[in-house]
Amino acid sequence: MHKMDMEFRACESCGGTNFDLIWKNSAQVTRVNGEWQFPINTVLCRNCGFCFSSPAPSKSSLEKYYSNGYSGCKSIGLPYSIGARVQILKKYAAPDGVFAEVGGDEPGDFHKACASLFKTQLVIDISNDIDSKLRSVKNLEGESVDVLAHYDVLEHVLDIKDFLGECLRVLKPSGIMICEVPNLRLYPRNLLMLECEHVNHFSVNTLSNIAREIGFTLIEVSHKCSRSFGFLAVFCKQPEKNAVSYDHTVEYIDALACLRGGMDQIELMLSNVKKLTEKINTLSLENKKMTLWGVTEILRRILEVMKLPKGAIIVDSDPRRKGFLLNEGIEVFEPKNVIEHIATSDLIIICAPRYKSEIIDWIFKKSGKQISSDNIVVLGESLSGESLL
Ligand SMILES: [Zn+2]
Description:
It is built from nine helices and 18 strands.
């Protein structure tokens, strides 16, 4: 088991060191490069209300952790909407200019979809499993990019100001930076607090405040962004005139309420897991077949409280996860190799709620099995069916 070196982080927004620890947890993460213990220390800055991790894993620990890539496997569905991204990008198109995406998560189809909007498109990522020659923003020439975008990157970044400073440097004067991050205000409606990899938790207030200090002006916000749990902010490379900061006390109080709401969702999910284990045990006694879909944090919570019963298998469409549960003595199957078992399962348990509709469609297409409320349980979903993780 790899352990993270933990380091104290001052507030990235105001530089303050006076925090309240709101959420302490630890996740066990299996990656291609091994098993990791990932501590979570979510704090709120008493001075400005910015929410982040401190102590957080050190930079060198995170580099090792991400050495095999940020990206997941997209053999079933895409976790983001290309259409939503392109819609915003159209407004800032530069047909003779350069578009750079930092942290491109297998961007092939996305970049094809915006091919007509820019003359040149670059992908910059630190991971090794994405085809890019540019490994860091630092390798880009100054004032060379018209539009720079990073989608769900900044919540992973330890030195926010350093990163944004590099983005500013490579943009041409009045260049555009598009930034999408999970929205702290939506935490009471999701399970994002289980995402150990997120070391920053932004609201529009805190993100725009940090970006402004670097030299960006916020020009647009959209809540119709490419992932349902985020917000998208568009910045222009120019110092903001007559900037007024937000009310720090209100930000703190509201952020605290958002974190508490998120913790309530986790409680609810755990109580649903408990109910589900009773159902699984009953079905197992009746020799019924079951399929648990998705090697996720939610699945781990199930395996923490019960042994996988006879007749139940675990599947994940990412072939790299085959050996992820070997320590528990469990093989993870690829769905395409166990279609018969899936088709004859009395219960399908989806532990990757984000992929619910793709999974249901896939099952019907491959096996003709109709999914109804009798034979499916989706964990990590709100009462209205909204995906929470
Ligand atoms: Zn602060």
